[in-house]
Design goal:
The protein is α+β, with helices and mostly antiparallel strands and 380 residues long. It has three domains: 3-181, BirA Bifunctional Protein, domain 2 (2-Layer Sandwich); 186-201 and 219-254, no CATH class; 258-379, no CATH class. It has 15 helices and eight strands. It has helices spanning 12-21, 44-56, 80-94, 134-149, 172-181, 186-200, 204-213, 236-239, 245-252, 256-292, 298-313, 318-331, 334-340, 342-355, 363-379, and strands spanning 3-9, 31-37, 65-71, 101-106, 113-119, 217-221, 224-228, 233-235. A five-stranded antiparallel β-sheet has the order 1-3-5-4-2, sandwiched between helices. Strands 6-7-8 form a three-stranded antiparallel β-sheet. A hairpin with a 6-residue loop joins strand 4 (101-106) and strand 5. Helix 1 (12-21) packs antiparallel against helix 2 and helix 12 (318-331) packs across helix 14 (342-355). The longest helix has 37 residues, at 256-292. The protein is elongated, with a radius of gyration of 32 Å. The N and C termini lie far apart (69 Å).
């Protein structure tokens, strides 16, 4: 179900810069792939200069740039080969198959799309191609490609004999051909794996945990968020329009920075718990040395006593630790606590079993469970 947009312009270099890195150069990694037609170079800037030089040989043309974009909906996943087939077929049907052209596909949106920059001036005859009624031919070509390549058909002016209430059903041959042509880009693969997770998540912890299960993670980039597999990435808003950072913060009722601060706090707490046994052993070793070495110099003895006192001061109050862990459990799932910190998860799980507490999504429910657990312990 591809749709197209087309228009004419004056500046090849300006359009090439937009295709390469966005309007203000803010998206340097947006190009998924690029191809050229009737040009000796694949560098966009050099190709644009060559096309401009060709156009300058026809002094009568004022707008030599023809910009065409073909867009597919998010549910369609055309491969590189399928997108090239669509572009070349459109160029042939428009009569532009002998003209200089550059194809650029982007990966910065939730839907697949390809841009085509064409020189309206023929490189040999220097005649100018007329774009009158081009949209009619483009639509006719795309409607034919829908059936040929197995894309979902849509009702349209140039879709003869089709029921306009629903898309045409693909044959098995069309489905097999679509599967052969379908090869996801890394960004498309990330979007597909993250889409349902980001649509159904109820909180930041749940979102990050479920992305982790898919082999993905959320990361700050500039003023927004990206989803990455460690090598490739895509913007969160490209996965879903409702998955930008402001919209997620509104849905979860918590700033992203606040969730990261909570996670860091839990990890620091768990780190202290992990270090506690070693700290206790050091204190015991210092005390043993002070008892046995009665002839230590006074300065050395004071240093050891000061060291032991410092280590004792870092001793963690278990009740305080449990309360802080319980505060996390009120808002997080127990498995999320295990994922962030196995140490904290084990302590929390043991505490819940000992007190009869169950993790509940509502704080009052957790408090009631804890009260029942303490009452049961006193009854024994």
């Amino acid at each position: 179900m591809p749709v197209a947009k087309a228009g004419i312009g004056t500046n090849f270099l300006g359009l090439a810069q937009y295709l390469q890195s966005g309007r203000n150069g803010e998206a340097p990694d947006r190009v998924a792939w690029q191809e050229v037609r009737h040009l000796p170079t694949e560098r966009l800037d050099l190709a644009a200069r060559m096309m401009q030089a060709t156009a300058h040989q026809n002094v009568r043309v004022q707008k030599p740039v023809y910009h065409l974009s073909i867009n597919w909906p998010p549910e369609e996943e055309p491969s590189h080969a399928a997108m090239e087939i669509a572009v070349d077929r459109v160029l042939v049907d428009l009569g532009l198959e002998e003209h200089q052209a550059v194809l650029v596909a982007h990966n910065d949106t939730a839907h697949a799309h390809v841009h085509v920059m064409v020189n309206r001036v023929h490189p040999e005859t220097l005649k100018t191609w007329d774009n009158k009624h081009d949209w009619r031919q483009i639509e006719t070509t795309l409607r034919g490609l829908e059936k040929e390549l197995g894309w979902r058909q849509v009702p349209g002016r140039h879709t003869p004999g089709q029921d306009r209430t629903q898309g045409a059903r693909r044959t098995s041959g069309e489905r097999q051909q679509a599967r052969r042509l379908r090869a996801l880009t890394p960004a498309q693969s990330i979007r597909d794996r993250a889409r349902e997770v980001m649509r159904n998540a109820k909180s930041w912890p749940q979102l990050e945990y479920r992305l982790h299960q898919e082999g993905l993670r959320l990361k700050r980039s500039g003023n927004g968020l990206v989803v990455t597999d460690g090598k490739h990435f895509t913007r969160a808003s490209a996965v879903l329009k409702a998955a930008s950072q402001p919209q997620l913060e509104k849905r979860f009722r918590q700033p992203y920075a606040a969730w990261r601060k909570e996670r860091h706090e839990l990890q620091q707490l768990a780190r202290q718990l992990d270090r506690a046994p070693e700290r206790n052993r050091k204190v015991a070793g210092i005390e043993r040395r002070l008892r046995m070495a009665r002839t230590l110099p006074e300065g050395r003895r004071r240093d050891l006593e000061r060291r032991a006192e410092t280590l004792r001061g870092r001793k963690i109050n278990p009740v305080k630790v449990y309360r802080r862990l319980r505060a996390f459990a009120v808002r997080w799932e127990e498995r999320v606590v295990f994922w962030v910190s196995p140490t904290a998860g084990k302590i929390l799980h043991g505490y819940n079993r000992a007190t009869g507490a169950l993790l509940r999504p509502v704080e009052k429910g957790v408090e009631r469970a804890l009260v029942r657990g303490r009452a049961r312990g006193r009854g024994r």
